[in-house]
Amino acid sequence: MILNVLSRSIASGLLLAGLSVAVYAAEPIRVGFLTIKSGALAAGGKQMEDGLRLFLKERNNMIAGRQVELVVGDTGGQPAITKTKAQELVEKNKVQVIIGPLAAFEALAIDDYIRSTETPIISPSAAAEDLTQRKPNPWFVRAVGTSAQPSHALGEYAARELKYKRIAIIADDFAFGHEIAAGFQRTFEEGGGKVVQKLWAPLNVADYGTYISQIKPNVDAVFAAFAGGNGIKFLKQYNEYGLKGKIPVLGAMTTVDEGILKSMGDEALGVISSGWYTASLPNADNKKFVAAMNRDYQQDPGYYSMGAYGAALMLEQALKDVKGKIEDKPAFMAALRKVQLANDPRGKVSLDALGNPVMDIHVRKVERVGGKLVNSVVKTYPGVSQFWTYNTKDFLSKPVYARDYPPASNIEK
Questions:
Q1: Which domains does the chain have, with CATH numbers?
Q2: Reduced to 3 states, what is the DSSP secondary structure of residue 359?
Q3: For residue range 211-228, what is the model confidence (pLDDT) as tens digits?
Q4: For residues 296 and 257, what is the distance between their CA atoms, to the nearest angstrom?
Q5: How many whole angstroms separate alpha carbon 108 and alpha carbon 104?
Q6: CA end-to-end span of the chain, whole Å?
Q7: Could you give the 3-state DSSP secondary structure of residue 226?
Q8: What's the angle, vertex CA 113, arms to CA 309 and CA 130, rounded to 5?
Q9: Alpha-carbon distance 399 to 384, whole Å?
């Protein structure tokens, strides 16, 4: 009698468990996607969406045995709209995870909301340092590096291997540009160089002539840190003002990103930059990814498309680890923070304790190969952390990289 009751109880439990799994599998996973479709950063937004849709196409819109429903929100590159769109995704569309937004200032604008609603978010682009440093968000992980993660490497390379001593910086005047420039300046000056000039241009500036004409003629190089399509305008005008061939250009990853290289000409040749990705990486996963992007979108992948594709890979791995049960938010978020990828086009990618990737950083040089411009790797710094080679505790004890780093007295008048 007791055995029969026990058997029926076990059978009922198994049936309920099976029904629960079946219900999960029957309902789609709702993924919110915050992107930009207009303005200076729209090109990056389009590339992010291309990378994400390619990923879903390759899997027939299925991850971990469940259908994926993608809900897209256009932020317009405006912090207030970004917050509104995030609220719509969570409260109206009931998304269970968000991929996005694009810009650092957008991610900062929704940080408090993400915390309060406990919404898992994977950043495919926004590189704001403090989201994984002094003010880590437990519901936030990043698929890309922090703003300064690649520029730490480039600053050291410029000082120690290129032997530059005096550099002028020109950058977009928003958080991303500020943090990239500061990271570069820190390692460059620690390597024996000196940043002697900083010029800040509005994100939506129409003409760089005013800034280019101010560049000191006795610098060894110019470090240009731009996002979106601004690198196209700057390098074209830099050439028109006759500075190409006279003062070399170093660039942030996004200044000569593959997504905009296709719109550049010889003015981009020779630009040395640093980044956590280049379409020229020779591994098998990257060759497959590049071929698919060429086939579907007639362009090489870069910062934005790789960032979104990488974010989707992280989502997939975490979902597999929890057997598709994204409804269990604590378990899903714990899995997301422990993701390690072996099949990423960048190579091996893992997350540190604060949710930021540890990955190779490549110093790249723009060359023409097979009739098109590419970022060829000239040096690789393996397994780079967001803290470079610094002690983590010491790094975090100092203020976040900002526009006024270091004190203004260090810059020549």
A1: 11-126+284-345 (3.40.50.2300), 149-281+360-410 (3.40.50.2300)
A2: strand
A3: 999 999 999 999 999 998
A4: 19
A5: 6
A6: 93
A7: coil
A8: 65
A9: 21
